[in-house]
């Protein structure tokens, strides 16, 4: 794992401690204190601050997980590809449009599998949603709404880059919102039209609340992303011609537990067992390397997501989206 001292230390390494499928064996980072904490948490993990030492130990791992912030992704993906290993890369692939061309070229030429770490796809409720959509159980889709809002701690270490538009993206869609965008691609495909509005509630440079509208042939999908709001309405709602589906608390770090189906026949509710999403995304990638279908976000979808992020950025600029 590259740059393991952030989300890797907080989420992925703990999630894989008891995995029967895979484990973290090597962790690289710049913060020696946090690397020491990783060693205490997982004594079997070899830690280093040196990229060349990480490369020398490549016989000790089968996959490279790029766990860095997006402004480091291009150089670290280039380095990971030089090790000739499959790659998992944190989201979004890039947050600066100047990096998109090089990242696209790097991944286009890769002969090894690469997955983008969007954890929401790795849970049973997504399979159920895909089934409802494919079979048109409630008729065709007319609209959908996906929201991920939270209150960003401006004092947190990660805020130093998240609040910098040159490193973390120009608006909230580059952070939590990109997970909702990825799920929209998973469920509805690539949109033909994009518009957006944004607001500044707590920030001066960045738009910390954004609403993006994805237009399809006969439906509209709205994605709301905010770093200045409550988590209480982080739900998914899909309206069909003959009913509606709602997944409460779809967007967050924990897996969704219920799915509601509303129709003329009344209200049905299906429940799901909890899943550690940060462990499941890596385990699913390992299964893919062993021959199973890819459940996670492909490079095609990851790059499409990046292109849509910049289209949203353009739409915000065109609409003077700072009202």
TrEMBL record:
Name one molecular function that GO assigns to this entry.
nucleotide binding
Q: Tell me where the transmembrane regions lie.
A: none
The GFO/IDH/MocA-like oxidoreductase domain extends over 128-244
Signal sequence extent? none
Q: Which superkingdom does the taxonomy of this entry point to?
A: Bacteria
SUPFAM superfamilies per the record? Glyceraldehyde-3-phosphate dehydrogenase-like, C-terminal domain (SSF55347), NAD(P)-binding Rossmann-fold domains (SSF51735)
Q: Which InterPro entries match?
A: Gfo/Idh/MocA-like_OxRdtase_N, Gfo/Idh/MocA_oxidoreduct, GFO_IDH_MocA-like_dom, NAD(P)-bd_dom_sf
**Residue intervals of the Gfo/Idh/MocA-like oxidoreductase N-terminal domain:** 11-118
Q: What is this protein called?
A: Putative dehydrogenase
Provide the species name. Actinoallomurus bryophytorum
